[in-house]
Queue: 4 jobs
Job 1
Amino acid sequence: MAKVASLAVMCIAAMVMTMFTAHAEAYVTCGTVATDLSPCLDYVRMGGAIPVTCCNGIRSLFSAASSTQDRQTVCSCLKSAAGAINGVNLQLAAALPSRCGVNIPYKISPSIDCSKVQ
């Protein structure tokens, strides 16, 4: 009986550790997205020259988004921002990653289904 109880406790501990490990792998948040992309805000509102700090932020963000969950989080944050920030030119925003040399597998748009981003 003690062996069964000990085995049960070990299984529960392993499940809890697995849950925390899986959660720990995803570390990109909307705060990260906002921080990395804040230098891009004037560009997506008014156009002009793309600031170097904007492209650096895009590269940093997309290299940090190494898991599917991270990429879906980035997508969701961009989707929300594209629909919520006044004056954003969606064509400029959608073209920005490629203009900075970063290829993303989706178009930045308020209508994207981020659950399908891999």
Note: DSSP finds six helices and no strands in the chain.
Job 2
Amino acid sequence: MPADPIHDGLPCMLMRGGTSKGAFFLAEDVPADPEVRDELMLRIMGSPDPTQIDGIGGAHPLTSKVAVVSASTEPDVDLDYLFLQVAVDAPQVSDRQTCGNLLAAVGPFALERGLISASGDRATVRIRLVNTGDVATASFAVCDGRPDYDGDAQIDGVPGTACPIDLRVAGSGPLLPTGNAADTVAGHRVTLVDNGMPVVLMDAVDFGVAGTESPAELEENAALRAEVEKVRRATGPLFGLGDVTGQSVPKMFLLSPPRGEGAITTRAFIPHRVHTAIGVLMAASVAAGIRIPGAVGADLARLGEGRDTVLEHPAGAFTARVEVGQDAEGVWRAASTSLRTARQLFDGRVFARPHL
């Protein structure tokens, strides 16, 4: 990396991946020491500050994200993708989760940077999600050896259309971390699910809301936020995550019956703000969880016979294709497929603020 990231800057590409936006770096361009790296990312994004006015963060968790990408040394894997969630108004950087939305942009970024090559009209890339150990397969269109960002795919939460990117993720662990379809935690019946993202499924009625409120309305409900956070902290050890007080996982989902043509209505605390749409791996976990008999949300959901599960969210709907079943030992496992889009926003050098 440059000797002076304040004056020389770092090579950086800003990309939209799904309904998120983040700063993408090659691993060789950022410090190898996690503490030094994280402190640098805070200065680059402009945290801690609710406006992130002195950095490139967008003053929201969905736009205060970082992807660090490198060629993988793992067999049958092309790329390693490390995700960092940079807190907006606190000096915190978390690597305890991954991000399925930014995952959509990892393949195009790697092609732009020359980590991979593509000679035909389509690229298929195997990506190791460093945060979780899962492996994803991404497939996207290529034109003259570069990503083709144009196309007719539309996803709710993003204006216009773009080239479709197909993502398939197979979880490496059991779908139900506690082995139970439902548990009682902090006085509430909940279901813990991990299909690439640790989530907690909760019945909105049990928390005194309809589950159709806007993100702003839910965030303004201080009593609700406190109760959801109490449950979140109590589930941390059950996931094997320990004390999650300062972490961005698990994600907390209020579920209610579908209002449109979907399977279920969702509102996601991520964990302190409410998602304006839904994350890719969050959707994969919710879609898998509500297919398990006895799980929270299973009795609220309207499921078809196919694998597609349409999740209604504040900005529209998201379709997650999940395969759910029990192995020979009776353990529930799942894999998911989803469609996302991504786009390169700018490429250049980013300059860190001198100090926090």
Note: The mean pLDDT is 95.
Job 3
Amino acid sequence: MEPSPVAVPHVLVLPIPLQGHINSMLKLSELISLAGFHVTFLNTEHIHRLLLHFTNVTSRFARWPGFHFATIPDGLPFDHPRSGPGLVELFDSLKITSIPLLREMLVSNRWGSDVRPPVTCIIADGIMSFTIDVARDLNIPTIFFRTVSACSFWAYFCVPKLIEAGEIPFRDADMDCPITCVPGMENFLRRADLPGSCRTNNLGDRTLQFLVTETINTTRASALILNTFEDLEGPILCQIRSHCPRLYTIGPLHALLKTQISDSSPSVSSNSLWEENKSCIRWLDSKPLRSVVYVSFGSLATMTRDEVLEFWHGLVNSGKPFLWVIRPDLLARKEGEDQILTELVEGTRERAYIVEWAPQEEVLAHPAVGGFLTHSGWNSTLESIYAGVPMICWPYFADQQINSRFVSEVWKLGLDMKDTCDRLKVELMVKEVMERKRDEMIKSAENMAKLARMSVGEGGSSSCNLDKLIQDIRSMCVRASST
């Protein structure tokens, strides 16, 4: 006998409208849809337009009868940048706009129907804690999904302890000074490695206060999901579990999704908010094994003209072929942008390939790629780990500073180049990864890649945790409906 519609959980997925967050939460939504749940993915209207324009999400998710997209305004004008300094305005506007709308939509059963029950569980981005207050009033359990690393989450969680101990704000300019009040990181963490917002001299800084408050609020949620795996961040996960005991590690998400989808299903597609240029794959096909440096600084980082040129000179002087992603909005200031990009393309035509956006998972999996010069965003870091590609880390902001420290000092999967942008340093580090330390780093990267593959395989920790998450969502929904 088929279960009645009320017996099937209806999960509302609520992401922050940023590329890395959308990417992870769409993958999570697809995994939940595989369990036969009803899933409503609540996007901002702005983000949904981009997804419809650059991806095939509509046709891809059509294979899951219980899945559907819904939209909500973010309260900002159409031409607002929604990035850089505009991020704070985006979060402020979302909070003002979303709370009353979310409450009204849940109360009115906006997303229910004859075949779809009312929302019985919310999975919200972990920096949208306002959803807890709305959901509790309506007796709906809320699970947080933090799209950053466990080490970054734990560092934010420990900020009040750092303030109490006088380790922040910094008393001087010595960024190599050890940080000793983050349990589990006492032996290697420095000021330079703390999340970017910790560098402020003002403890009332809005970004710092926002991130710390949102992280502490995680303890109010019914559970916490992290996109990581036990063999990668086990010691830090033990620290987090002392405060958030119901914790599900289900990463690397992109790999777990691939293992869960049957061979007969369409291949996993992009969730990119930029148009991917797949011609770079043909270019990689012509290159020798592990000979190419892949360069990408993610979807939010911006650079000055001088920084771009320092990287360009360092890459060219290394003598290695490179594939470089240069977004149209990568340069912080527009003066001379067209001339710079023309010079870069012309100056590297024989040895390099430049695209505005690349199919990153496919690029990292390509046998020609031997190193990844990255901003150390968590999605990029996990994708590189799973592909077994050593990294050169140039973190930009937020969690990226601590991710890069773990890559270099804890996991031994690459080099950390934070806070420097010098052509000689770029050249040196490229040669270290691609020549001098190549065998050593490849061995470390391949060992960690093996552990990542085991975690998402049958009986692996992430695979089992996904099963437990699905079972617990069912139980939460049953308990909520019976009270």
Note: Residues 149 and 427 are 29 Å apart (CA to CA).
Job 4
Amino acid sequence: MGFSRHKTIYQGEPSDEVDKAWEDLYNSFGLSQIPKAQARLLPNKTLPILGDEENYAVGLAVFHQLHCLNSLRKGLNPEYYRDPVTGAISNIAQEDWPEHASHCVDNIRQSLMCASDISVAMGGGG
């Protein structure tokens, strides 16, 4: 599962093909909107839609988690993904990268702990 010659399309060196596979996991699923009164009831923070402050943006957590994982993947290869002008990686400003990466690690940690897969897996060593 994902080692040596058994790699998936989501692994390996950066390429347009790998990037497209990752983006296809979540980019076709857009955000939805809910009224401000409903947004106040949510346990997680959301933001108003620009130009329509009476409605707030929401989406399924799985797509946020995939976005975070993809951002971290890109951060592992900054020489390929860093914008040469702005220094941004995955549309995240260079100065915001450490905080955003930390958010992504914690977001994925929470997901793994809340929906743990308890099946036996082969370890990667270490």
Note: The chain has a mean pLDDT of 89.
